[in-house]
Amino acid sequence: MKLSLCTISFRHHLISLEELAVWAAETGFDGIELWGAHARNLAHDPRRNGAWLADFGLSVPMVSDYLPLDGEVATLLAKTRDLCRLAQVWQAKKIRSFAGTTASAATAPAHVALLVERLRLVCAVAAEHGLSLLIETHPNTLADTLAGTQSLIAAVDHPALKINFDVLHVWEGGDDVLAARQALAPHIAHYHLKNIRSRADLAVFEPGNVYAAAGLRDGMVPLFEGVVDYTGFLPTCGAAEASLEWFGASAFEVLRSDRLAVCACVGNGLRVARQPSPPALALRARH
């Protein structure tokens, strides 16, 4: 399993991508999943790109953003092309978004048809750029349950459409995560890994809370200390790409320990932490 950290974990930290890259390499991560907002804010600096990050022994597997499917088509296409351009700058092969903002069971058929049409347009743009569009399994979207996700895949019917399998949210939707993983396996291109203390704590992951600097973090727990059984799940994933999506406090400590636990669980062994290459070290010294 190739394991990345997410820059969204550091959304309220005063830390540079270079500092994060040095730490990720020294800690043994394989990559850094870029939050779309961070990718856009780095676009002014042409020195920061996928080749630069490769000097640290790291890659960007995915740029994760929020495409406005309900807006004007011209705006959607412009934002999609911009996101694809950013992904190419970072040599990422995947962009991530969500399928709407309402639960699959509560979305009117006409609106489902609209979202499907818009997703097909986005897939076409992604394919033109040599990328896949990953739709995340998430509550209050058309991919909130296994059945909803399967219906969405069938309706869009585009080879560029893939799934970002967020294990906790699949469990939140009421599906067995092992059965859902098996059913969706041909379409899964990435996994998001996080956990929660109990179902009663799930509200901490609602967008209005999780993105707020003063939001609650109670109930967010390290990967192997929550209600989702990753011990049984991770060994079934094979040679997958996944990201540790941590939103809580003590990000460095939790990500470090979770990476070690994942490696032990999937039988990777404990990979030796890497030192950045001489060019990367020189960059660090200059900046």
TrEMBL record:
Domain of life (superkingdom): Bacteria
Residues passing through the membrane, by range: none
Stretches assigned to the Xylose isomerase-like TIM barrel domain: 23-234
Pfam families referenced in this protein's UniProt entry, alphabetically: AP_endonuc_2
Protein name: 3-dehydroshikimate dehydratase
Taxonomic lineage: Bacteria, Pseudomonadati, Pseudomonadota, Alphaproteobacteria, Rhodospirillales
